Amino acid sequence: MGKNNNYSYSDVDDKIQSYLQKIFDLEEPEQPHDLFFKWTLGRKPTMVNFLEIALPAEVIDHFKINSINRTNDSYVEEIMKETITDVVYEAELADGSEGNICILFEHKSTVKRRVILKVMKYLYNIYNDKYKNQTTTQVLPIIFYHGQENWTAPKKLSNILEGDIGSIEKFTPDFEYFFIHLKEIINYLEGKISPEGLSYFRILDAANAENEEAADEKFQKALDIFKDEEIWSSREFLERVVTVAIIYLAATSEYFNDKNTFKLAQDTLHEGSENLMTFVEEIMKEGEEKGIEKGLERGIERGIEKGKKKTLIETLLVFASDIFSLEDTETLENKLEEADIDTLENIRDNILSLDSINDVYDMLE
């Protein structure tokens, strides 16, 4: 059983979203991670605080940092959404011009050298969208990585170009993204950021733990933040953050998708957590009625895998049709159905560099 950082619209996941929609009075269902971000790091004062800590002073001075406002925009292309999500902020520059600060969350645990090309395509999408009156906005791209591997991908476009640029340097585009690694910054944030901001990073760290022992240790650090009720602005706010944090963990990590996780949350909150535990009981009962062993654990796990595979296949069929002018996709679809998720992800990550549909079939062998 592997750790999984993706979501699907399985029966269990639909129920989770309906539950979150009800207790948070949402007009539309939202994914656990999106809602968790919104209630923690996504709050404007917390994000301003975080950026002031994480970014160099000269970068902060380039913006009127208190002017940031989150938008609903996204510039991640469909093929990249399995591994990257983005949060886009409008931010006024020190000289009064318009600007954007974009945080790209890299979810894939395996570091890929070509991420710089993804960022380049991402920047093009923003520049093109914001182009008006013969100018476009300035953009600060930030990659936030929470995997366990060390980040070895080049941070500048010029680092992946072959040979000596020499005399054509001025004709060659180049840029660099700002990089933040969760495991390098998390302990530094202690005492410097609000409790909701720190809880976001602690929970994210626990969700990406490399083994069960580390997951338990990291989860206990998150619970310590929740137990200290005096540092929170209100009891209601604390309860909401704990609720969405625990459900986020259950939906993303193999180490937290059983009843014990929710019981720990109940013990942390003491009073007022009956709704959360009632919801857990309903989910587990539903899983048992369907013959799914361990209810919540197996329901979420299987739903995630099934939904992820379906999404990958649909994405690959679209791109195969467009890139290789494939008219009859039935044979390819049957072969993709037989493949495992790792193989499908490998094809997705490399399809733009393949020469023909035969290369796809070769990767499926």
Description:
This protein is globular. It folds into two domains: 11-161 and 169-286, no CATH class; 297-364, no CATH class. It contains 15 helices and five strands. Helix 9 (235-252) packs antiparallel against helix 10. The protein is an alpha/beta fold and 365 residues long. The model is unreliable at 1-12 and 286-296 (pLDDT under 50). Strand 2 and strand 3 (98-106) form a beta hairpin. The longest helix is centred in the last third of the chain and has 29 residues, at 296-324. It starts with 10 loop residues before the first helix and ends with a helix. It has a five-stranded mixed β-sheet.
Mean pLDDT: 77
Largest sheet: 5 strands, mixed
**What is the radius of gyration computed over CA atoms, rounded to a whole number of angstroms?**
22 Å
Figure out the total of helices.
15
Apparent shape: globular
N/C terminus separation: 24 Å
Helix and strand sequence: HHHHEEEHEEHHHHHHHHHH
Present the secondary structure layout.
Elements: H1 11-23, H2 32-39, H3 44-54, H4 57-62, E1 69-70, E2 84-92, E3 98-106, H5 115-130, E4 138-145, E5 178-181, H6 182-185, H7 195-207, H8 212-227, H9 235-252, H10 259-269, H11 274-289, H12 296-324, H13 330-338, H14 341-350, H15 357-364
Parallel strand pairs: 3-4, 4-5
Antiparallel strand pairs: 1-2, 2-3
Helix pairs in contact: 1-9, 2-9, 7-8, 7-9, 9-10, 10-11, 11-12, 12-14
